[in-house]
Amino acid sequence: MRAESSGGVLLVIAAVVALIWANSAAADGYLQFWGQKITLGAGDFAVTHDLGHWVNDGLMVIFFFVIGLEIKRELAVGELRDRRAATLPAVAALGGVVVPGLLYALIAEGEAIRGWGIPMATDIAFAVGVLALLGKHVSAGAKLFLLSVAIVDDILAIAIIAIFYTDRLSMLWLLGTIVGLLVCVAMRRLGISSPWAYVPIGVVVWFATLESGVHATLAGVALGLLTPAGEVRGRKVLDTLEHDLHPVSAFLVVPIFALANAGVPLGDGALAAAYANSATWAVITGLVLGKIIGISGGAYLASGLRWGTLPQGMHPWEVFGVAALGGIGFTVSLFITDLAFADASLVSDAKVGILTASVIAALIGVIALIVSPRAGGGGSGREA
Questions:
Q1: Tens digit of pLDDT for each residue in 129-148?
Q2: Mean per-residue pLDDT, 231-253
Q3: Cα dist. 56→31, 220, 278 in Å?
């Protein structure tokens, strides 16, 4: 919680800096800086992208690797291990994916329809950062519920990226990815526990995934899921990696990503043009209304049908506030935006929608949690 909340604050700062930079007298410098071409490798293995793409395709692998580790931990030893405890947040997260996507599809027009996956994601660092600001006004159960929903949300968002946002597919390179992952499995069975031993093969898996047409960051998720949750020769590999890499992801990778992607020009009528576009309102509606209706509806449905129960100490009214915070879809939503659209104007409009929705969702969530019956009742929440 402390790492996520601190990372969320830094994420907001980076996003604000990007917005100021992209709308200042140095706006051309912003575009030139992230647009400069960089080549990695040599010969047949040389890859050239601009700096912004290297951030999204390369640096973000660390972010998605950490997500893979978190998912593996929750499935193996965490809250999602117990079926009954996992059912309610899973149904809530599913509702928080399906309803926003449907609302987006109903509003978006023309080419904008391809961005239906944008409002499906929740930014866990941003949302937990907002939640942490409320302190004792929020029960420990509500925090646990948000984290569980966000983890399942991540699983669904990753599946969407893999299945629906892959434009081309090279079976030969994809085979290379699979072979690389099998090598990792073999190394694990041989008891090799040093993370450094996996770095070379990890780079190979990343490169093969990049060339296959599947988004390269999914290599990070796959490698994270293959990390053993138990001890290997007395070494807790997953715990060590998560402990070491989470700060790198939260305090370096995600802020750099925000700096590279949140710089949306808002002057010269750009803001008015964005609010006149269906894509912008589709994103706002999906993230704000879609998440509230989907997450809270899914949670209440699962609870009413006795498929699962809310975490101990969480008041049912807190579900609405947590659901609203689920509408903060910053990092992964921005990520999907760049995958969904080739048109720069659509990218800009969708980003305006994401920024607007994230602010609205945060405000609604904060107000809802402050006035909920849990407000001021932090004692029992801590006991939970």
A1: 787 777 777 887 888 888 88
A2: 85
A3: 15, 12, 26
pLDDT: which is higher, 166 or 358: 358
Q: Which whole number is the average pLDDT over 330-345?
A: 87
Residue 38 phi/psi, 5-degree rounding, is: -135, 130
How would you classify the pairing of strands 235-236 and 37-40? unpaired
pLDDT in tens, 78-109: 766 777 777 888 899 999 999 999 999 999 99
The CA-atom distances, in angstroms, between 195 and each of 172, 244, 350 are 27, 11, 38
Read off the amino acid at residue 219: A
The predicted structure's pLDDT at residue 142: 85
Residue by residue, DSSP assigns 59-113 as IHHHHHHHHHHHHHHHHHTSGGGSHHHHHHHHHHHHHHHHHHHHHHHHH--GGGG
Rounded to 5°, angle at Cα 358 from 364 and 1: 85
Question: Once rounded to an integer, what is the mean pLDDT over residues 231-235?
Answer: 76
Task: Answer yes or no: are the C-beta atoms of 166 and 341 closer than 8 Å.
Answer: no
Domains and CATH numbers, the chain: 2-165+215-383 (1.20.1530.10)
| CA dist., res. 370 & res. 365, Å (int) | 9
User: Side chain identity at 319, as an amino acid letter?
Assistant: V
Closest CA to 318 of 358, 279, 371, 359: 371
Q: Are 308 and 85 in contact (CB under 8 A)?
A: yes
Residues 211-232 as b or e (16 or more Cβ within 10 Å = b): bbebbbbbbbbbbbbbbbbeeb
Q: According to the 3-state scheme, what is the secondary structure of 169-199? A: CCHHHHHHHHHHHHHHHHHHHCCCCCHHHHH
Is the pTM higher than 0.85? The answer reads: no
